[in-house]
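pinging the channel bc i need a second pair of eyes. not urgent but kinda urgent?? the chain im working w is below, pasted from the shared doc
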Amino acid sequence: MKLPNKYGSISKLSGNRRKPYMVRICDGVVYDEQIDGYKVKRAILGYYATRKEALAALAEYNNNPFNIRDAGITFGQIYNRWKQEKYYQQLSESAKISRESALKYCTPIMDMKIKDIKTAALQDIIDACPHGSSTKKNIRTVMHTVFEYAVQNDLVNRDYTDFIKIEYSEPVIDREIFSEDEIKKLWDMSEKWEVQILLILLYSGLRVNELLKNNRENCNLEEKWIYVPEALAKNRSSIRYVPIHDKIYDFVRRFYMTGEKNSSKGLIINDGGYVITYNNFVARNLKKINQALGSNHKMHDTRHTFITRAHSFKLDDLCLKKIVGHTPGNITQKVYTHITIEELRKEINKMT
């Protein structure tokens, strides 16, 4: 039976061989000086015991072609190649951490050849993940990254992550508010700059990176406010002026002046003159504070605590929404209500 052009060829080798059937495929074209023209370059796909096995292997290759030079490349090897790409280097630190965390769930396929991985193997990993849809989407993102690289480099011709199914689940938000005793202990330790950061968050309702990534130009010490610009805002309602509570004013001023002294644009600068990042603060400073308190708080607990305490001190609901950047509840509040920064400052200072 004659095989179609460019489909590949099967040859039976002479001698007493266990696998005498050699399968070759087209591997591009090369210029041949002897014929003064181009000819097909062939590569060996494999050796097989019977012609039937050889035909099956050739058919499978033509259904799912791959770069023969990387025929044995694994999922993990492709991921490591991708990490050398410019796109990976441009990812934020938090995005890199998210990718690496999701990659751990892909352990069962890390050493599998990419050409052997199909939808079922990917779906099994997603289904085995004990966490919600958000984590599963991160895992799928890592899988898609690997398959996208493989498709672009002719290692496979299909992205099987397109067929992964993820059932939506409500995100589980685990928040533990700071108790009044814990807040009192923080005030007792408030000479430390890392504790001052927590107290600023506890008395402002700012999201963590709305504070840590903000610049001095967005802080007005005279009028006592911190502005959250669009670049740091979660949504339109989050673009806002946050009043500085009287109890934390000296802390904000200290960080502001430290930044000015060190010619830094950043608002929150430590005693060494360095910008404080979320990941470093959590890994080093928050861990020590938790040990001192005998607690296990996360950074986002500060905002949850602020809102909880604001209700207990009976802050005006609309003012509270303006301070924390929540969308007002009705059209009248959205369109017709204007609240000055002075009114917001008066309201926030109800908290002790």
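so The two ends are 89 Å apart (CA to CA). and The domain at 180-348 is CATH 1.10.443.10 (hpI Integrase; Chain A). — does that match what u expected or am i reading it wrong
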